[in-house]
Amino acid sequence: MKGILFLARTHVLTAIRERITLFWFLIFPVFMLVLLSLIFGQIGQEGEINLDVAWINRDAGGEDPGGFTTAVESVFERLGTEQAPGQLPLFTLHRPDPGEDLDTFLEEQLTLLRRGRWDAVIVLPSGFGQALYAGIAGAVEPGEGTAPLSVYMSETSVASTMAAEIIEQVLGEVDREILARTGRFDPSLAVESETVWLGASDEETRYVDFLLPGIVLMGFFVNGLFGVPGAILFNRDRKVLRRYWVTPLSVPRYFAGFALGHLALCGLQFTLLYLLGRYGFGATISFAQPAAALTLLLAALTFMAFGFLIASLVRTANAGMATANILNMPMMFLSGMFFPVAGLPAFLKAVVYANPVSYLVVGLRTSVGVESSSYAPALLVGVPLGWIALSVVVAARRLKWDVER
Amino acid sequence: MSDNVLLRVHDLVKHYGDVRAVDGISFEAPAGSVFTLLGPNGAGKTTTLEMLEGIREPDAGEMEIFGVRLARITRPVKQRMGVLLQDGGFEPYLKVREILHLFASFFGHPVPVDHVLSQVALTDKAGAQVRALSGGQRQRLAVGVALINDPDLVFLDEPTTGLDPQARRNMWSIVGGLEERGKTVVLTTHYMEEAEALSDRVCILDHGVIIAEGTPRELTQAFGEETMIEFHVEDLPSSALERLGACRKDYRVDGATVTVETEDLPTTMETLFGWSREQDVPLRNLVVRQPNLEDVFLSLTGRRLRE
Prior knowledge:
The complex is a heterodimer.
Chain A: H1 2-17, H2 19-39, E1 51-57, H3 68-79, E2 91-94, H4 102-114, E3 120-124, H5 128-137, E4 149-154, H6 158-182, E5 193-198, H7 203-237, H8 241-245, H9 251-281, H10 290-313, H11 317-333, H12 346-354, H13 356-367, H14 377-398
Parallel strand pairs in A: 1-2, 1-3, 4-5
Antiparallel strand pairs in A: 3-4
Helix pairs in contact in A: 1-9, 2-7, 2-9, 3-6, 7-9, 7-10, 7-11, 7-13, 9-10, 10-11, 10-13, 10-14, 13-14
Chain B: E1 5-16, E2 19-30, E3 34-38, H1 45-53, E4 60-65, E5 68-70, H2 75-79, E6 81-84, H3 96-104, H4 113-119, H5 135-147, E7 153-157, H6 165-180, E8 184-189, H7 192-198, E9 201-206, E10 209-214, H8 216-221, E11 227-232, H9 238-247, E12 251-254, E13 257-262, H10 265-279, E14 284-289, H11 293-301
Parallel strand pairs in B: 3-8, 3-9, 6-7, 7-8
Antiparallel strand pairs in B: 1-2, 1-4, 4-5, 9-10, 11-13, 11-14, 12-13
């Protein structure tokens, strides 16, 4: 055990004393956190989007002389329908079952919104159609007796922010349609809506909450993909490892020490990024849940195993770094770590589905409540575990611990 | 195995592809002695040691260490072994003390790190990172690592290659200290003077086979009562060489160095002085010496050790 602890310490000390390692370990993730905080403000404005929206119509069955309630509902229904084969609708609408108590349903949907499962909750109030009709018909003064449409949003979700913007645009279209139908071009007659943000925070905080899990995973990813093969292959090339093999140190003990050191480095990196995210950028998410901690551990182990896989497939350290570079970009960018991947072509989606990073990103964001998982829970764990198993088996068979002669 | 033999190998073979790097060698290293494998580069010394250290497995043959016959080197055997590799590296960003602590952690009963630091004269460099050490200091650190478990059997593979004369003398003194403490040292070198200065027994290897074995004295005595006369001449005319050949048959020329073997020193010296005057060839740096291991190797292979 003493040998394992000393090896772990060696791994950590070497990593933090080497400038290039320190750059990848600390400076690069911090740089990405700052840079992407800005870039992420634009996310979701391009490409295919599918938002989960709960829809509650309290005016169903009520008086609707102008047919406005039906018109507004049909607009959202149309947005929740597939427009072309294989093309995702803008909204996936979640409605109460017939006869279900609407207050209870609303409470449930707001809870799901807070947990990041839904991106918005829209409530069409009772009397909406009647009030709108009365306003247009001149029975009441504009602004009197109105029943505004309520839109609930989550402050911790970037997708929710996107939903808010889209719903605003949709309501604008509805207004134009109504005004065109009635022939009255009076903006005071527009459909009123009120937006309710759940919680209290500004937009910047929401972005960093979305980003932070991705940046943490990116740090782990770079550590595993570059740090692990680098440490093993450079030490093999420098003939550091052969010094170990002439002592009673066994390969499993070496591996255990290396893994412990690697996990300690990941832990240190996570702590630094979390503290920076929380106190430097105002992140509010918590990683204290067991699911988040386990996902972080699974991610660190998956990327470490990937590093071993690379080390086992190449002959030299330089070849290892080149291979890591080749894998780095597709694995990172085809994972949803930085932008949504729903709109990618089929062949790229296949890469996304095979990529363990995709599942770890979704798993971590789901566990900290900034996203709802589009994968089955078994996949979130099973795919990374499968990659670990494959990597370990290949590495155990192929990894050379000494330079070839 | 006699009680006095700590290491014995029999008919050891190792191939690299079609190359027979070690071709059926057998030898014994008595306990408490310095046993040297001497030979030129590529003779098979390092491969032999790597099999004994557990880095490579032999293709055939037997190894017996601490009285135990082994197909490959086990961890209990490694607990009692110390190894100085010919080309092992260290983590450049670790400090000297950290490296010694790390290697100490691999053994059951290590020596205190401060003791080893003092033994290899690195106490004042204990806080320095490896990348800041000189070649000699790194080699002393490597020796410290090899001695961290107070081993009974120490393998030193080319311990002074690349070191300056002072560092080489320091290394010799460390090896001498090990022998005084009753340790068994197996050493490889291609420096004839190192083998002569340090060894109790020498095994000369060439092309993977043992071509001679014995104490340095036994090996050089194979030359009988001969004495070597050595001198330097520049631009030796061929006519002068022919004349020398007429006077003495047992001479050889290696660059500017002429070596003459003789059992009758006074007569040969007179002949040489006469030849020098007659041919007007000054005998620069003239040395009269006993035969050494270089002469043994040369007489057995027709080549010098460092060719």
